[in-house]
Design goal:
Keywords: Acyltransferase, Transferase. The protein is α+β, with helices and mostly antiparallel strands and about 140 residues long. The chain has one domain (about 1-130): 3-Layer(aba) Sandwich (Aminopeptidase). It is built from five helices and five strands, in the order E-H-H-H-E-E-E-H-E-H. Strands 1-2-3-4-5 form a five-stranded mixed sheet, with helices on both faces. Strand 2 (about 50-55) and strand 3 form a beta hairpin. The protein is globular, with a radius of gyration of 15 Å. The termini are far apart.
Length: about 140
């Protein structure tokens, strides 16, 4: 397995997978929305963000989308993980953890002292994030009325 920056021709596929996987990535909270996903990915990529992929030969096993964002509560730049995904048949092989560790090292090399991400409560990756040292800092609450 090799972790590397996504090739230009792969970015379009990663975008389409992100759209198709919106419900899974959000643990069922969000519905598929190509416009919203396109706006988020375009913003991240145009601000210096990038995809890293875990690949075996040219087959993508999973990816992570990294960038820099603003923590408005502390008025500081932070590394941000916008997406992490490993295809189901490659799960439980440590690929997600390796993508996270490599992504964290790249953000640290770029000068970031902190990294943040959003994770939905029912997302199984939350336990991995906690094992990597991520801690809850806020809770978004919602009530239908």
């Amino acid at each position: 397995m090799l972790i590397r920056k996504a090739y230009d021709y792969e970015i379009k596929s990663l975008f389409y997978w992100s759209v198709a996987l919106t419900e899974e990535l959000s643990a069922g909270y969000m519905k598929r929305n190509a416009r919203m996903t396109h706006e988020m990915v375009t913003r991240v990529l145009s601000n210096g963000g990038y995809y890293l992929v875990a690949s075996n030969n040219l087959e993508i096993m999973g990816w992570i989308l990294l960038g820099i964002d603003q923590n408005y509560y502390k008025n500081e730049n932070v590394g941000f993980i916008y997406e992490l995904y490993v295809f189901p048949h490659y799960r439980k092989l440590g690929i997600g953890r390796k993508l996270m560790e490599y992504g964290l090292s790249q953000l640290k090399k770029s000068g970031m002292n902190k990294v943040q991400l959003n994770v939905f409560n029912k997302n199984g990756a939350k336990k991995m994030y906690e094992k990597l040292g991520f801690k809850d800092v806020a809770t978004l609450m919602e009530k239908e009325i």
